[in-house]
Amino acid sequence: MAASRKRKAPSTRKDYEGLAVNGNVESDKEQNKGNVKRRKHEKAPSHEVEYLEEKRNLEDLWQVAFPVGTEWDNMDKLHEINWNFSNLENAFEEGGELCGKKVYLFGCTEAQMLKVNDVEKVILIPVVVAVCSPVPPSDKIGVKSVQREAEQIIPMKSMKMAWMPYIPLESRQSPVERLHTEIYTIGCTQRRSALKFLKVERIKQYDYCLPYLQSLKPSEDEQDTVVHIMYPLEPPVVCEFDWELDELEEFTDDLVKEEELSEDQKDKFKEYVKMQVKEKKLAQRQTREARKKAIEDMDPKTRSALENMRLYKFYPVQTPDTPDISHVKESYINRYYGKAHVVL
């Protein structure tokens, strides 16, 4: 008779612990098998793919063109509004106004009262001027303001400015020797962080800078017959005298009648006006002579470039994020460049 096979009961505590451990291992294996089966049926969590908007090739062109004559404290205000210069970018595309041409760009700003979020406020509008020319328009900067008596024409480099080549975004990873561009912008290497070390007069000089151009034609100032009078009294007598249209004796009598000038100051006032007229006529004559000499000394290539130069003035395009500027656009650039041929 075969002996019956019976499982031996654990006789010690160690035996009980061994059984407990083995039981747990077997249980864990069964559970893991179930987890593996469940994982096979579970779907991986779906992640929405985020696409970054691709940068346009000339997207930062308007920002690279230094806004000449803008106060340093106002530079950040140009970026408070999301201005769009796609019209400038499109001008360099095939069929555009500037496509295939050598172009020199500079920035400037125009302060205008505009409605932003139904509130009227003064806004600095960035503007870009494009000069189509085979040679740089000028390597000089004009410094002129109402407060300054004399006009200064100084080298760009004295204000840390220069015409710098603009490299489109898609070409910025290319080796330097392979780079070629037909676009140049006025750049300024003056660091804003270093302004605190400059004298106030030097900082203010930047506020009155204007891109300079040696015109072949007489400027408006050369033909202007008006002098701005500020006769030193308390309060001062402020007026404008036109030596072609006004008669000095009659002009002075009218000021006395209006009680802006006392009778005992009449003769001194007339002498003051005569001196102001004489100084302006002298300045105009010197300007004419300097212009004629500059033209005589000019090489034929530069003169031809000035005669055939085309000026384009770009304003930001209208978008839902920007205020309406259609009513404030104008062709005037500055006293040296005069008016643009095209306003966009």
UniProtKB/TrEMBL annotation:
Q: What InterPro entries does the record tag this protein with?
A: HIT4
> Could you give a single Gene Ontology term from the biological process aspect?
regulation of cellular response to heat
For bias type Basic residues, the affected ranges are 1-11
Q: Where is this region: Disordered?
A: 1-48
Q: Which residues form a coiled coil?
A: none
Name listed for the protein in its UniProt record: Protein HEAT INTOLERANT 4-like
Say which species the protein is native to: Platanthera zijinensis
